[in-house]
């Protein structure tokens, strides 16, 4: 049971980034569709549950130490190499964004110079990644319960302080700009946008599990927790849409109504989410090229961490922002490929011999 909880916690910890914590992503992809957006969170949750279960199970079956072996099992040896390269680049890009975001947050909340804040967070992330994979997974998963509690508490506060009626909130929602034309497409886009980052950590987590059943249950539980969080935050933001519509960080806006001290706590929680994501993505990137737990891996982590820090100072965030939509389409392809691989596995064991994949 401990392995299941650890895998689920790491899954949630990596995918719940700063955009999720601030409420902005939930606002755009769910809340701005009104009540239909709540149904969208359930659709996203179902897809996350399936993907988490399937990917962690494949990682366990193939004893994956990086996402490469799982990606090639899903996409084939030739197309798999292309997808592997795109995912690998995405891991580095997300790490850069997280370091830049951490610097901005520390500057806003604590008046740290952004460059110094990013440097401090880089040191913390590199130090965490240099630990062995089980410790990294435990570290990421340990913070997840706090993230869940704070998010649910803020959402509950929003629901109980609602003043506008449902019809008014629906009208306000219809006037907002949503992330897609249809609520179901927005829900699928949200999963697609995130699963590219989820593939590496789920593959690696599955590879560390005692058996495939444990890995699959960990992925399933992580998907359920993600779904519950999305529903709770979406319900809370929709209840106060008359107040938070158009706000860049709607969750922090709600918290600031309660007290400055609580706002400080939530800012720290968001920082923890940024650290979660950065640790997971940097580890996945480094594990793709270097054997984890070795001196080469630790040295490589330091070098790559310094490179990510440098990129975060060069305005790389805006470049990545333009690239993200491409990875949304890649995510759609991955979801379809994972479904096909899962169906194929039901009919006959998928690559029962992991060496068949590693040899390609």
TrEMBL record:
The keyword Membrane applies. Keywords: Membrane, Transmembrane, Transmembrane helix. Signal peptide: none annotated. This is Membrane protein YkvI. The chain crosses the membrane at residues 33-58, 86-106, 112-131, 138-160, 180-204, 216-241, 261-285, 297-320, 326-343. It comes from Marinobacter xestospongiae. InterPro entries: YkvI-like (IPR038728).
């Amino acid at each position: 049971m401990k392995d299941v909880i650890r895998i689920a916690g790491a899954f949630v910890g990596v995918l719940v980034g700063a955009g999720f914590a601030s409420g902005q992503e939930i606002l755009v992809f769910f809340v701005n569709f009104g009540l239909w957006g709540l149904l969208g969170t359930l659709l996203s949750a179902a897809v996350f549950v399936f993907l988490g279960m399937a990917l962690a199970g494949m990682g366990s079956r193939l004893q994956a130490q990086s996402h490469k072996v799982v990606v090639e099992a899903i996409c084939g040896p030739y197309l798999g190499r292309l997808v592997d390269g795109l995912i690998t680049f995405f891991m580095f890009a997300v790490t850069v964004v997280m370091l830049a975001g951490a610097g901005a947050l520390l500057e806003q909340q604590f008046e740290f110079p952004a460059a110094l804040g990013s440097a401090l967070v880089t040191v913390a992330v590199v130090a965490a990644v240099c630990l062995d994979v089980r410790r990294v997974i435990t570290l990421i998963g340990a913070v997840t319960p706090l993230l869940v509690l704070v998010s649910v508490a803020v959402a509950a506060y929003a629901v109980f302080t609602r003043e506008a009626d449902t019809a008014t909130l629906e009208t306000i929602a219809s006037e907002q700009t949503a992330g897609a034309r249809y609520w179901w497409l927005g829900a699928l886009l949200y999963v697609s946008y995130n699963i590219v980052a989820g593939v590496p950590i789920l593959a690696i987590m599955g590879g560390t599990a005692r058996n495939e059943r444990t890995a699959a249950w960990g992925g399933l539980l992580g998907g359920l927790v993600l779904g519950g969080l999305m529903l709770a935050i979406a319900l809370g933001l929709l209840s106060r849409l008359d107040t938070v519509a158009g706000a860049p960080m709607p969750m922090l806006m709600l918290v600031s109504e309660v007290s400055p001290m609580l706002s400080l706590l939530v800012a720290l929680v968001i920082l923890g989410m940024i650290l979660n994501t950065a640790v997971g993505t940097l580890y996945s990137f480094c594990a793709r090229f270097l054997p984890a737990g070795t001196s080469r891996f630790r040295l490589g982590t330091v070098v790559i961490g310094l490179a990510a820090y440098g990129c975060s100072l060069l305005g790389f965030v805006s470049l990545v922002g333009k690239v993200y939509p491409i990875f949304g389409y890649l995510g759609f392809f991955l979801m379809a490929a994972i479904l096909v691989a899962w169906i194929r596995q039901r009919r006959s064991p998928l690559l029962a011999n992991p060496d068949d994949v590693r040899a390609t």
